[in-house]
Design a protein that fits this description.
eight-stranded mixed β-sheet, four-stranded mixed β-sheet, globular, about 450 residues
Length: about 450
Amino acid sequence: MLLSLPRCLRRLTYVYIFLGPSVVTATLSHFPQHSPNPVLALSTHRTCSENGAGDLVTLFGHHASNVFVENIGAPYFFPWSYDPVCTPYIPELKSELCVYTNFTFSAGRGISIFTTPTIAGEFSALPPFQDASALEGVNEPAKSWRTQKVPGKGIGVVASRNLDWKDKVMSTTPLLLVHPPPSALSSESIEIFLRIAIEQLPSVSRDWYLSLATIFRYENLKIQDVLKANTFEVQVGGMMHLAVFPEQSRINHDCGPNAQYHIDHDSLSHRVHAVREIAEGEEITISYTNPFQKHLARQEYLQNAFHFTCTCPRCTSSKASDRNLKRLGISERILSYWDHEPQSEDAMGEVKAAEKLVANYLAERLHGFIDRAYYYAAVAYLAVGERETAVAYAQLAMDAKIMTYGSGTDVEVLKDIIEDPKKHPRWRKSYLERGGSNIGTITASTRS
């Protein structure tokens, strides 16, 4: 059967899901609505994406067959490579949810998105869909890491060379992004659409996704199982989407990780940096949970979300770790009070408290979350007129904050300290007159 339709896009492809007692069937909106045999029509468009000749539409139903759709005219659904495949209208969302795929995204890595048409428009306006140079330095071949089996953890990521503080480990884009599904859609229905999303990716990316770890090992819900076990979050259009970054999904958890990540929502890129020295062959880790929670809270979250028990050094010495966390909280409250005071009657006490806070962060292996401690140290040294040490700590704070929150985060106060510390309101606002500059020295041990 040969049909002549506008090239690659006929209209939005609406897949209507009917849940019977034991089967799932569907019909396609631009096929006859009164067909006696409901079918599920999935357009893979592989031929279209490769040479523009046409689309192969597979009809699943009582009479399975393939229909070749000849393309005429120019494609006009940029940047998507396939007809969006959509659910019916969902009152809860006041919209449909549709599968959108760009087969050639990021030099052929590909990307699939399950979201509303409105948010899909916002995705398409993001820099990576408009200009390939927006992903410069992203999705590069691995130079700093490799995957291998890690005892007791399955597959993990290890350093393939020595890494220093701030070294980039990896930066990649997701293969799949998913709008949080509404309650109106069953797991079986969601799986149909997510399978379309994965099937429409390039074969290498599709196989890569399917090789990732699962939690429940339900083959009939495998796409969602992989999503559950490997999800991060990306916000677009005011909505947080679940996202799978396969490289980062291989990085195991540690409550005191040696790497920190930041997700840039505009470029859809997940960036990982070393936050302390990592030796060649050492495992690279990130934190899956809030590291400032007490041991039991962290373990409960990891069990519920990822179904494993953490055995990192902080968890194996949980009582001491919880005591340290309590001390960190007390020190930060005291330093926060001093930070808002124009003068401190105990300048040396503030300096010592800030230095102790930094030391406790490092002892607790919280290198990836230390920006506030460095900031308090910078302000404490400003108060006693120690310019060089204050600037050094401000630079450490800014670098740490950017690795955690990205370059777009609010770092103006830190930049001002670095550029001209004497203009800061705390500069030398101390009752203690000091002469010398040996109060503190920034060394490698301050960051490791």
